[in-house]
Amino acid sequence: MFDSILFERQGIPSVPIITEPFRPTAEALYKAQGISGYQYVAVEHPITSLDHNELRERARFAAPLVEAALLEIEN
To answer: Does the reported pTM lie above 0.85?
Structure first.
């Protein structure tokens, strides 16, 4: 999330991908940084224990959401 904030401050559109339990953390972080309405994509938790195929499925779920968020940022 920090990298995404740094990218955005440099004018590089960015959408972090987090897992569901980290939504409150993301919101608190953005609030502490004075950022409101920042977009991120949340996927099911956990991801560290997934095998390659399961992780690929999470990526397939997240990819169109990230794309949509980036396109919205650009407009």
So the answer is: yes
Domain ranges in the chain?
2-74
Residues in the chain: 75
Listing DSSP states for the chain in one string gives -HHHHHHHHTT-----EEEGGGHHHHHHHHHHTT--S---EEEPSP-TT--HHHHHHHHHHHHHHHHHHHHHHH-
Largest separation between any pair of C-alpha atoms in the chain: 38
pLDDT-derived band at 12 (thresholds 50, 70, 90) equals very high
